[in-house]
Structure formats: C-alpha cells, structure tokens
Give the backbone structure.
Amino acid sequence: MDEGYSYVYEIFGRKPTSWCSMRNRDTVTHAIYAYENLGMLWRNGDLGIHAEKDVGNLDDDTWEWWEPASRAGMVHPVFTHELDQDPAIKYSISRSKFRNWVDNYDSNNVSIVSFYEYSQISRNTYDASFENLQYTEHSIIFDARTNGAIALVNVNTNAGKNTQVYDNTSKKFLSYNIEQDNSITFWVENNHTYGIYFVTIQLPNNQYQEP
C-alpha cells in the first residue's frame, strides 16, 4: 500500500486521498492503516459506495438505478473504473451514460467532488467552529473555522428582502437560502470572515457599496 501510494504521488504529483482494492480483498484493517498512516479514505467501506447496501457502483449494470437517481439530484458516494469507452467493459460506465450522469447533476446544481472533499464537508458538521461573533441591530459578523473544506451554516436571524451576506475575506456578496423560519443558510470557507447585513446601500448603476 505504501508503494502504491508513493507511485501515484510520483506519477501525478499529488497524493491520493482515497483507495480501494480492484480485487475486492480490502478489509477494515487495510482501511484503518490507510487512513491513519496515509490519510486516505476507503471507497469500498461504509463511508463509500456501501453507505447504502443496495445502491451499487456506477457502471452499465447499475445504470437503471443511477439514471433516475442522478436525474433527481440524489447525492451518494460512488466511483467507477473506465468511462471513455462506448459500450463499457465490465464494472465500468459507457461514455454516453457517464455524460448523461454528469449532465443530470449539473442540471440540479449539484457539484461532483472527490471522496475526500465529500467526507470533509460532512465532517464539518462536527469540525467547524465560529468565533468572534459581533451582533448589532443591523449586522452579524463572525469568523469561520473549518477542517479545510467548505461548511454549510444556518444563522438564526430574521432575514428580509434587503438582507445581504458578504464574505469580508474574498470581498464578495454571497447567495443564500431563506428558510421557513426566516433564518438563512449559506456556504462558508475556512478562515474567512462573514457579515450578514440588514441594510443595503445601493449606489448609482446598481452597484453595491462594500459594507
């Protein structure tokens, strides 16, 4: 496993972040070693494609399940082997079906990310913290600390049509969702400072002044 890890790093210049055995001989013992010593996640484990036992990997034999699932925007960890042949070899996905799979998620505004990023985003439910909270009648400001991946936050406030969410670090206004209780939900990045402002200052030509 160490040798394979080093080989991938030498060839691609990037350290692999997930793994599985193509001969299906991988075990929990291997998974623990890979995670603790190499920082890799097990694609075949309960965190990976076996999170739901009856889903199956992405290949032509499981396309009957994946086609409507991807069309509905259902999120589930998955991987495949080859994806550039049409028709595909065993345990792989045909190129036309793979393009359809990608297009289905794109039409649902769902991003396709690595196993590692998928895991880290989920872990941010526990890992993320928010510091230096400042609250006034017109604004809420806080610092976000994550494990390096993005985190989804919900701020319990009474948002209105003039509410603006601003990333003070990247100097950008952000989109957000207003929930049924008028709280707001949006994505944050590690070591960024965010401001929620309840007063909008509009300048000529529909430009917005930085809060």
User: Anything to note?
Assistant: The chain has three domains: 1-48, 53-112, 128-206. The mean pLDDT is 90.
